[in-house]
Design a protein that fits this description.
Elements (H helix, E strand, L loop, with lengths): L2 E3 L6 E7 L10 H18 L2 E7 L3 E7 L3 H20 L11 E4 L3 H17 L40 H7 L2 H10 L4 H4 L6 E3 L2 H12 L9 H15 L3 H8 L3 H5 L5
Antiparallel strand pairs: 1-6, 2-4, 2-5, 3-4
Length: 261
């Protein structure tokens, strides 16, 4: 059975994406820059607020507030994967799907999530200090960016970060640095006890299909229209490939190849 994502009452999520088969996603700075650009476009389009992020070599952490979380993630991933596949002449999925998310609906959970995200590059030994990692939000808090370097692409990313939450929680750069160095957050602490997913019934999927068909029959659709319907179901319901294939009377491979294309 497919599943639908558990939604947050306050709209704040820790989003986690990993490269397919744990392969590297970002090989060079241009890859990071393009990903940042795609996130910021999706942020504006879907009214998201980004509180913290860390881009690793084979996975991504984001703490965001967004009502339409699936549309937000699909928005930046589709754009980035199209660019990435053209650059590297690839055609398969880039990231494992569906993406993971954990609801953050209390002060303690949000605080732990921020620390975990910002600690990630040092823990993974990508750098020895938080300042050294170019592709996290750490330098954006407490006016921690050298204004003379803001225009240098290697120092300043394209993602606009809402710094108010972090600055209110930690009050100063010294306090933030102290917590990052002395309050190590493990993965178990940021994972939710409840599964982030609930099962979606066949009747719910049929209702979604009927809404998309708008009084038309499935047999009336062209191949391109069928692809569009399948993409919308992937994006809006996160149903399994097998479930969508059965619903649309197509092969599993037909559906799988549509993901992020």
């Amino acid at each position: 059975m497919g599943k639908i994502r558990r939604l947050s009452e306050v709209g704040i999520y820790h989003i986690y994406l990993r490269g397919n088969s744990k392969f590297i996603i970002f090989y060079e700075d241009d890859d990071y820059r393009q990903f940042c650009k795609c996130i910021d476009i999706a942020r504006v389009k879907h009214g998201a607020k980004i509180y913290a992020y860390a881009l690793m070599d084979n996975h991504i952490h984001l703490l965001v507030r967004c009502v339409a979380i699936d549309k937000f993630v699909s928005g930046f991933m589709i754009g980035f994967v199209m660019w990435y596949n053209r650059k590297y002449k690839l055609s398969d999925r880039l990231c494992q799907s569906p993406y993971n998310s954990a609801v953050k609906n209390t002060y303690a959970k949000i605080r732990s999530s921020i620390l975990y995200i910002l600690q990630n590059p040092v823990k993974a030994r990508m750098c020895s200090t938080h300042e050294e990692h170019k592709w996290s939000s750490y330098k954006m808090y407490f006016n921690n960016i050298d204004k003379k370097k803001k225009k240098i692409a290697d120092v300043f990313t394209n993602i606009e970060v809402d710094t108010s939450m972090v600055q209110e929680m930690f009050e100063s750069k010294e306090n933030l640095d102290f917590e990052l160095s002395n309050n190590s957050i493990c993965e178990k602490e940021i994972r939710e006890k409840e599964d982030n997913w609930k099962r979606i019934s066949h009747s719910e999927l049929c209702a979604e299909l009927n809404r998309l068909l708008n009084n038309r029959e499935l047999s009336e659709l062209s191949r391109d229209e069928l692809k569009m319907i399948a993409r919308l179901i992937i994006r809006n319901t996160t149903a399994s490939y097998g479930q969508i294939a059965s619903l649309l009377h197509v092969s599993y491979e037909f559906v799988r190849k549509l993901k992020y294309r």
